[in-house]
Amino acid sequence: MSDVTLDASAANPEAAPRTAPVRSTGAMAWLRANLFSSWLNTALTLALAWLVVRFAIGFVDWAFINAIWSVPMQGTVPQTQICRDLEGAGACWAVIGEKHRFILFGTYPYEEHWRPLLVCGLFIGLYIFSAMRRFWTWVLVPVWAVTLTVIGILMWGGILGLSYVPQERWGGLPITLILSTFGLAFAFPLAILVALGRRSKLPAIKTLCVVYVELVRGVPLISLLFMASVMFPLFLPEGMNIDKLLRAQIAITLFAGAYLAEVVRAGLQTLPRGQYEAADALGLSYWQKTGFIILPQALRLVIPPLVNTFIGFFKDTSLVLIIGIFDLLTAGKTAIVEPAWQGFGIEVYVFVGAIYLVFCFAMSKYSQDLERDLNQHRRR
Amino acid sequence: MGETIDHEARFASAMRTDAPPAIVLQDVNKWFGALHVLRDINLSVATGERVVVCGPSGSGKSTMIRCINRLEQHQQGKIIVDGIELSDDLRSLDAIRREVGMVFQSFNLFPHLTVLENCTLAPIWVRRMPKKEAEDLAMEYLERVRIPEQAKKFPGQLSGGQQQRVAIARALCMKPKIMLFDEPTSALDPEMIKEVLDTMVMLAETGMTMICVTHEMGFARQVADRVVFMDRGEIVESGEPEALFSDPKTDRLKLFLSQILRGH
Questions:
Q1: Does residue A120 contact residue A174 with C-beta atoms inside 8 Å?
Q2: A116-379: which CATH number, 1.20.1070.10, 3.30.460.10, 1.10.3720.10, 1.10.10.10?
């Protein structure tokens, strides 16, 4: 028997020396499996790679290599001829350098720009503070109240030696942050109440909530904004006037509330009946049951669609441009109305888009972390 | 009918003590739509009495005990728990739910709270107990159901038997006068049924007033003062477990016993 074993390689072709098996791990293996597994895949990979590289080179050329970062001034008029001579081959970032303060702060008095800048800083600080879970206690309430009061004082002025700035002159990023922060801060609790109301056993409350959601959701945001800005003042008694920004704010809050209410309701419906029964059997009151058992579970489940809606509304605040409020996007559009800078829209929109992207990406990233942290109990 | 109910026997055990009965159901009727699920239920449970309710599925036994803490509402008759009549008055309902603990077939623990938080939530918020005291009490009961080491875990990390023992501890933390068990072992794997039944036997030995809906005849024999057999929404027969099981008077109980004994 032993010679058979020794001679196996000759006798048995199976045992002949073989080439090493194809690697199944590592970068090369991954590329082979995912990008070059067939001739069709290889062709697609190469074609797309060519497009990506071409686009990337084109963008780098436009945004950096051929870009012009500043233009000479003649008196107060910028000489933009050298930008125009590029004919689109390079970006004219000079428009941002020249106009960034207008884009960020609109028609707010130039020498007072530190005030809206500080306001933006306060907003961002407030977001970061509120995002930390160790501060999720009652301490948030005074912090928000104080910060929002300071923001109001800074924007309006008129006291503490600050000059008064009427709301019509506010603009740019602070408007976008004010509309979305107040809008979502009020819309979210409203949405929770409406979602609970839609499941109420009391017919009057239930009907009211259903009518609210269906009415508001069935109308475009633009028409709500128009109603708030044009029609609503007609119903007010003579001489009474509610701030235009406040009216837009209310319209946005109501609109966001209706959408968020449906998201929250979806979360409420996923909870099994046993959770309600266990809470009832322990003698918890309606609000204890809702606050400790139902909402904590329901809201965790709907974090992704909630943040989806939040991000959507952050960007939808730009619709206020149609009623003449100067948010970030409107300020950007207005910045290039000046004859010297006409035609440099792409640069301005890239700049404005980047600001929106930073905020939206931060929200998205934060929600992913939150979802992971808060759903630890569902991991085994 | 041939299925007469011996009223004397039914109230006999309630008469043994002078204390007022813990639970009285008087001519209770309930319908789910057109379905008549409880028919003229009369039942009186004395303080400290342990009653096992059995019967085929759909016989109304779960509905009956769910009426006792008003998870379901009855439409006719009277239910008096701990001297308080159940009505639409929310204050009397709160008072009753504070005194009646319930254990469910599907545990119904709160998955987002730890085992300890599950046990302390109601004592803190309903009984207004200081947090430290509630935690000490919870640990005491978790030790009694023999899982103190799981206090910091989430329910999803525990086995079914452990979860049900936590559910029992959670109910006990409210220091109820009465405990209701709604098929507590029906959702468990066979090897876990014993640990839950042992916990219930231990509880019975403390003199707790208990109503258990269960098919565990061994448990009924061991701890029940009285077994109530229900079928099609009525109480068909009731009596001491040994007498009831060895000498069933009605055909319906005979049939039921033959079915569950075959299953064992």
A1: yes
A2: 1.10.3720.10
The pLDDT tens digits for A82-140 are 777 777 777 778 778 777 888 888 888 888 888 888 889 999 999 999 888 888 888 88
CB contact under 8 A, B112 and A285: no
The domain ranges of chain A are: 20-54, 116-379
- ipTM for this model: 0.87
pLDDT beyond 60 at A6: no
**Cα–Cα distance, A251 to A333 (Å, whole number):** 23
A285 touches chain B (CB under 8 A): yes
In chain B, which residue's Cα lies nearest the Cα of A300? B112
Distance between CA A171 and CA A184 in Å, rounded?
19
pLDDT in tens, B130-159: 999 999 999 999 998 888 999 999 999 999
d(CA B246, nearest CA chain A) in Å: 36
Contact yes or no for B111 and A378 at CB 8 A: yes
